[in-house]
Amino acid sequence: MKKLLCVSALTFGLVACNGTKAPENTPAAESLATTGSAASAPISAATSSSGAPVASVKEVTIPSGTTLRLSLQSAVASDTSRVEQPVRATLRSPVSINGQVVVPAGSEVSGVVTEAEESGRVKGRARLAMRFNSLRSRGESYDIRTSGYAQEAEATKKKDAEKIAIGAGAGAALGAILGGGSGAAKGAAIGGAGGTGVVLATKGKEVRLGAGAAITTRLTAPLTVRVKT
User: Fold this and answer.
1) Which of 57, 63, 75, 214 has its CB surrounded by the most CB atoms within 10 Å?
2) Model confidence at 32: pLDDT above 90
3) Total Cβ atoms within 10 A of residue 93
4) Residue 52: its pLDDT value, please?
């Protein structure tokens, strides 16, 4: 009987010992799972952070007084254009600061007609003026301030005087042939009056600038543009 009790006690002790050892495996499994997750984390982070490099942008200021050499894209004229009519142009040459091109050739510049005065018959020369107020470069738009561009028709006084003189001379020659000295004087007066009539009936020249015409203006205020580096 004592032997039976000893065997039972020994068996119970072995079972109890096996039961207490079993939980020791659980932390090891959890540690392995945690280690596996931690090992995979840097891989996903590295994958998500990879990509194309982002270009940096810096601001460059173009000083007031900088010349803008333009090529007109819109045709304008003193006798057909109207004030506030839109005008378009492009840069014929780039704008550079410290050797770096900050506004390339071909950039769009726009503005409006500020004056359009056609020539008169007796006096008053034709005049055309415009001003540019917007620049578009590399996909960016900027408000700009520029000096006005103006052009006036050539004076015709010398040619008018020649027309009157020619008319008087022709009349004098004809009067001399027909009526002697007095005829020459009368003919000159009549010829001169005729020449004057031609001048009064003829308008002066107009100012006309077609597409492609080269004009120049300049900035009257600094302009800051964004340039990729």
Assistant:
1) 75
2) no
3) 14
4) 64
d(CA 54, CA 166): 76
Domains in the chain, CATH or no CATH each: 58-156+203-228 (2.40.128.260)
Is residue 151 within 8 Å of residue 207, measured between CB atoms? yes
The alpha carbon torsion through 127, 119, 88, 209 (nearest 10 deg) reads -100
pLDDT of 113 higher than 60 = yes
Work out the end-to-end distance of the chain between its first and last CA atoms, rounded to an integer number of angstroms.
97
3-state SS, residue 102: strand
In this structure, the dihedral spanned by the alpha carbons of residues 32, 34, 39 and 44, taken in order and rounded to 10 degrees, is 140
pLDDT digits (tens, 9 = 90+) for 58-82: 999 999 999 999 999 999 999 999 9
Alpha helices in the chain (DSSP H): 2-21, 25-49, 157-201
